Amino acid sequence: MVAVSSPGSLRPLHPLHAILLAFPLPLFMGALLSDLAYRASFHIQWANFSSWLIAGGLVGGGFALLWALINLFRRGPARKGRLITYFVVLLVMWGLGFVNALVHAKDAWATMPEGLILSAITTLLALAAAWIGYSGFQGEAR
Where are the domains of the chain? Predict the structure, then answer.
Protein backbone atom coordinates (compact mmCIF):
# COMPACT_ATOMS: atom_id res chain seq x y z
CA MET A 1 0.00 0.00 0.00
CA VAL A 2 1.32 3.42 -0.95
CA ALA A 3 0.68 6.42 1.27
CA VAL A 4 -0.59 9.41 -0.65
CA SER A 5 -0.08 12.89 0.76
CA SER A 6 -2.83 15.42 0.16
CA PRO A 7 -2.11 19.16 0.16
CA GLY A 8 -3.87 19.59 3.54
CA SER A 9 -2.10 16.73 5.29
CA LEU A 10 0.35 17.15 8.16
CA ARG A 11 3.98 17.20 7.11
CA PRO A 12 6.99 16.82 9.37
CA LEU A 13 9.66 19.41 9.99
CA HIS A 14 12.68 19.63 7.75
CA PRO A 15 15.32 17.24 9.22
CA LEU A 16 17.77 20.05 10.02
CA HIS A 17 15.01 22.07 11.69
CA ALA A 18 14.08 18.97 13.73
CA ILE A 19 17.71 18.61 14.88
CA LEU A 20 17.83 22.27 15.95
CA LEU A 21 14.52 21.92 17.79
CA ALA A 22 15.92 18.93 19.69
CA PHE A 23 18.41 21.10 21.63
CA PRO A 24 16.31 23.45 23.80
CA LEU A 25 14.20 20.90 25.70
CA PRO A 26 16.98 18.72 27.16
CA LEU A 27 19.26 21.69 27.81
CA PHE A 28 16.61 23.78 29.56
CA MET A 29 15.50 20.68 31.47
CA GLY A 30 19.11 20.08 32.52
CA ALA A 31 19.26 23.68 33.75
CA LEU A 32 16.08 23.10 35.76
CA LEU A 33 17.57 19.96 37.32
CA SER A 34 20.81 21.84 38.07
CA ASP A 35 18.81 24.60 39.74
CA LEU A 36 17.00 22.01 41.84
CA ALA A 37 20.35 20.48 42.80
CA TYR A 38 21.70 23.94 43.71
CA ARG A 39 18.64 24.64 45.84
CA ALA A 40 19.20 21.37 47.70
CA SER A 41 22.98 21.61 48.17
CA PHE A 42 24.08 25.24 47.61
CA HIS A 43 27.19 24.04 45.74
CA ILE A 44 28.02 26.89 43.38
CA GLN A 45 29.04 24.52 40.58
CA TRP A 46 25.36 23.60 40.07
CA ALA A 47 24.61 27.26 39.29
CA ASN A 48 27.51 27.26 36.82
CA PHE A 49 26.11 24.15 35.13
CA SER A 50 22.75 25.88 34.81
CA SER A 51 24.33 28.91 33.18
CA TRP A 52 26.08 26.81 30.55
CA LEU A 53 23.01 24.66 29.87
CA ILE A 54 20.86 27.77 29.43
CA ALA A 55 23.42 29.24 27.01
CA GLY A 56 23.34 26.04 24.95
CA GLY A 57 19.54 26.01 24.94
CA LEU A 58 19.53 29.61 23.73
CA VAL A 59 21.90 28.82 20.85
CA GLY A 60 19.89 25.82 19.63
CA GLY A 61 16.60 27.58 20.29
CA GLY A 62 17.79 30.70 18.47
CA PHE A 63 18.53 28.76 15.30
CA ALA A 64 15.18 26.94 15.54
CA LEU A 65 13.50 30.31 16.05
CA LEU A 66 15.24 31.73 12.99
CA TRP A 67 14.13 28.73 10.91
CA ALA A 68 10.55 29.15 12.16
CA LEU A 69 10.64 32.84 11.24
CA ILE A 70 11.83 32.05 7.72
CA ASN A 71 9.10 29.40 7.36
CA LEU A 72 6.54 31.92 8.55
CA PHE A 73 7.43 34.37 5.79
CA ARG A 74 7.79 31.68 3.11
CA ARG A 75 4.19 30.52 3.56
CA GLY A 76 1.20 32.20 2.05
CA PRO A 77 -1.47 33.75 4.25
CA ALA A 78 -3.64 30.61 4.17
CA ARG A 79 -3.28 28.10 7.06
CA LYS A 80 -0.62 30.00 9.00
CA GLY A 81 -2.23 29.65 12.43
CA ARG A 82 -0.15 26.75 13.67
CA LEU A 83 3.06 28.24 12.28
CA ILE A 84 2.34 31.51 14.11
CA THR A 85 1.63 29.65 17.35
CA TYR A 86 4.84 27.66 16.98
CA PHE A 87 6.85 30.82 16.29
CA VAL A 88 5.34 32.70 19.24
CA VAL A 89 5.99 29.80 21.65
CA LEU A 90 9.60 29.61 20.46
CA LEU A 91 9.98 33.38 20.73
CA VAL A 92 8.61 33.49 24.28
CA MET A 93 10.77 30.48 25.22
CA TRP A 94 13.87 32.20 23.86
CA GLY A 95 13.02 35.54 25.48
CA LEU A 96 12.43 34.03 28.92
CA GLY A 97 15.52 31.86 28.45
CA PHE A 98 17.54 35.03 27.81
CA VAL A 99 16.15 36.64 30.95
CA ASN A 100 16.99 33.40 32.78
CA ALA A 101 20.57 33.64 31.50
CA LEU A 102 20.78 37.18 32.88
CA VAL A 103 19.42 36.03 36.24
CA HIS A 104 21.97 33.19 36.32
CA ALA A 105 24.76 35.68 35.55
CA LYS A 106 24.27 37.16 39.02
CA ASP A 107 25.91 35.80 42.14
CA ALA A 108 24.83 32.19 42.79
CA TRP A 109 22.97 33.13 45.98
CA ALA A 110 21.02 35.79 44.09
CA THR A 111 19.68 33.40 41.44
CA MET A 112 17.15 31.75 43.73
CA PRO A 113 14.16 31.55 43.46
CA GLU A 114 13.83 33.54 40.20
CA GLY A 115 16.28 31.32 38.32
CA LEU A 116 14.45 28.16 39.34
CA ILE A 117 11.06 29.57 38.35
CA LEU A 118 12.35 30.82 34.99
CA SER A 119 14.04 27.47 34.33
CA ALA A 120 10.74 25.68 34.97
CA ILE A 121 8.82 28.01 32.66
CA THR A 122 11.39 27.80 29.83
CA THR A 123 11.40 24.01 30.14
CA LEU A 124 7.61 23.91 29.79
CA LEU A 125 7.75 26.28 26.81
CA ALA A 126 10.48 24.16 25.19
CA LEU A 127 8.26 21.11 25.68
CA ALA A 128 5.31 22.93 24.09
CA ALA A 129 7.44 24.09 21.14
CA ALA A 130 8.77 20.57 20.58
CA TRP A 131 5.24 19.16 20.79
CA ILE A 132 3.91 21.63 18.23
CA GLY A 133 6.95 21.30 15.97
CA TYR A 134 7.18 17.53 15.91
CA SER A 135 3.45 17.00 15.46
CA GLY A 136 3.67 18.48 11.95
CA PHE A 137 2.26 21.44 10.07
CA GLN A 138 -0.47 21.59 7.49
CA GLY A 139 0.74 22.48 4.05
CA GLU A 140 4.40 22.98 5.04
CA ALA A 141 6.71 22.13 2.18
CA ARG A 142 10.11 20.67 2.82
Answer: 14-133
